[in-house]
Amino acid sequence: MELVRATEAAAIRAVPFIGRGDKNAADKAAVDAMRAFLGTVNFDGVVVIGEGEKDKAPMLYNGEHVGNGRGPACDIAVDPIDGTSLTAAGRQNALSMIAVSDRGSMLDASSVFYMDKIVTGPEGIGVVDIRKPIGENIRALAKAKGKAVEEMVVAVLDRPRHAQLIEDIRAAGAGTRLLLDGDVAGGINAARYETRIDICVGTGGSPEGVATACAIKALGGLIQGRLAPKTDEERQKGLDAGLQFDYVYSSDELVRSENTFFVATGVTDGGLVDGVRRKGPIIRTESIILRAHSGTIRRVIADHLAEKWLGEDLP
């Protein structure tokens, strides 16, 4: 619940910037709010995946210590807004999120920004393999789930690099769910039993892959990742950091702990959680909390007095 307060704060403070076209201002507001609340949490957290590498942010950068220094020693992955462009445009599926695991257990893939990923629910374990053609994976998973291939839905980031992948998915007979941004939510929805998404696949951020793995462990699903450097220089940086290439990372290698938490609060409405809403004198948020150790998924709907949140000082 302490972690949820941090994602709630980030989501609420981003709301004035929804649809205003300024993704940097939205991100700054969310970063400031999340950092303030993380400082009160009873843990000694080290940011393994943060803002600095990607956004040159002065706070929540890789290697920063957060929390009050008391309590368990943890690795932490943060994204005050996963989907800053979505927020700026007023589109769906923007989230504020935090993932936490035992100290030293998260793969630090910050030197290589992109990763090829595939995510499914529990039915995909031992059935799906990222090294196989996507059509073969779709057919194998459909059989494992007892579904017709034509009923299968595959989530993919809508990017030019995925043109052939999208064509192959449709050629196999499955449908696509094209994501404008935010493949973390896409991956989680692929692993949840009550959604229409069966697989999330494609190249996205490697930091998001590690954060997603924290959630997938709580859902009992499958995630596999292969690092995808864009240049020889980036590949060498990864090698110098001890990363492996032409290698499939499993969930247990992305996060070497069964004691993980994943927390997300909706900024805008989406398939995972609803966005922030103003209801008269209150601001309502919806969050999801996934804990691997107990295999528990909790949803938290919270009402916050608007007068406490509209001033300069955080409550």
Can you walk me through this structure?
By secondary structure, the chain is of the alpha+beta class. The chain contains 11 helices and 13 strands. The protein has helices spanning 2-14, 23-38, 52-55, 84-89, 134-145, 163-171, 183-191, 206-219, 232-240, 251-254, 306-309; strands spanning 44-49, 65-66, 73-82, 95-102, 114-120, 153-157, 175-179, 199-205, 222-227, 261-266, 277-279, 282-291, 296-305. The strands form 2 sheets. Strands 1, 2, 3, 4, 10, 11, 12 and 13 form an 8-stranded mixed β-sheet that branches. A 5-stranded mixed β-sheet has the order 7-6-8-5-9, with helices on both faces. β11 and β12 form a beta hairpin. α1 (2-14) packs antiparallel against α2 and α7 packs parallel to α8 (206-219). The longest helix has 16 residues, at 23-38.
Key phrases:
315 residues; 11 helices; five-stranded mixed sheet; alpha+beta
| Low-pLDDT residue spans | none
H-E string: HHEHEEHEEHEHEHEHEHHEEEEH
Strand content: 25-35%
Beta strands, count: 13
Detail the topology: elements first, then pairings.
Elements: H1 2-14, H2 23-38, E1 44-49, H3 52-55, E2 65-66, E3 73-82, H4 84-89, E4 95-102, E5 114-120, H5 134-145, E6 153-157, H6 163-171, E7 175-179, H7 183-191, E8 199-205, H8 206-219, E9 222-227, H9 232-240, H10 251-254, E10 261-266, E11 277-279, E12 282-291, E13 296-305, H11 306-309
Parallel strand pairs: 1-3, 6-7, 6-8
Antiparallel strand pairs: 1-2, 3-4, 4-10, 5-8, 5-9, 10-12, 11-12, 12-13
Helix pairs in contact: 1-2, 7-8
